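Internal tracking record. Fields below are filled automatically when a chain is submitted to the structure queue. Please do not edit lines marked as system-generated. If the sequence contains nonstandard residues, flag them in the REMARKS field before resubmitting.
Queue: standard
Priority: normal
Entity type: single polypeptide chain
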Amino acid sequence: MNVIQKLLTLLLLLAGIGHAWAQEQGGMISGKLVTRGGELDGTVVTNINRDKTTLADKKGYFEIYGEPRDTIRFSSVYHIEYTYIVAEGDTKRGVLLFPLEPLPDLSTRLNEILITKIDAGALGFTNKYTKRYTPAERKLRTATTGILDPLVNLLSGRTAMLKKNLAYEREGFRVNKLLRVIDEERLVEYYKIPPDYVESFAYYAVSREEIKDIVNATVIDTKFLERMIAPVVLDFLEMVKTKIE
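SYSTEM-GENERATED OUTPUT FOLLOWS
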């Protein structure tokens, strides 16, 4: 056996050991979501690296496959999106607790809506070329402009939080846009989505890149969207089947 063959054999052996080690490190992660407010049932739990998704039950319990350094994302209509990096040994630690921060309460969100109605546009001080900002966009713009605010907010972590809120707001816009094109009645009657899971399905759907790209378009091709969403529906129904039963 020449030197090159020996090196190839060694590389194959190391690759096999690495693969076996990765499989040994990976496994099912048992978790429980905890929060100060908001329902946990239907929270979408996604392993971004492995393209695996599951739903938490009404008590916040879930199981999902993960390996060290995988990113787990938690998405809910009641909570700020949260991500977690899987650590070594997580699959052997029993039930792990994952905290979810509730979104601002309804009164705060209603106040924001009322404030946006009494703005410069309503008073006639803007024109068609003026950019209009949503509440989350205005807060982020305020935090990242000026002289001292950006530095103070960056050091305090407030800018990162506002960016997460903005991302969540935009995801909410996509969900609303999807539900305007394919309404709840069609999702329930035609696609057989359980009524209690319609909103969870909408969040699950817009988290898929192929659906997100369609919904982000200025004009949505309804037929193309329905054709692309069909396999997403099947994946979602398969995922929630045990919970429905």
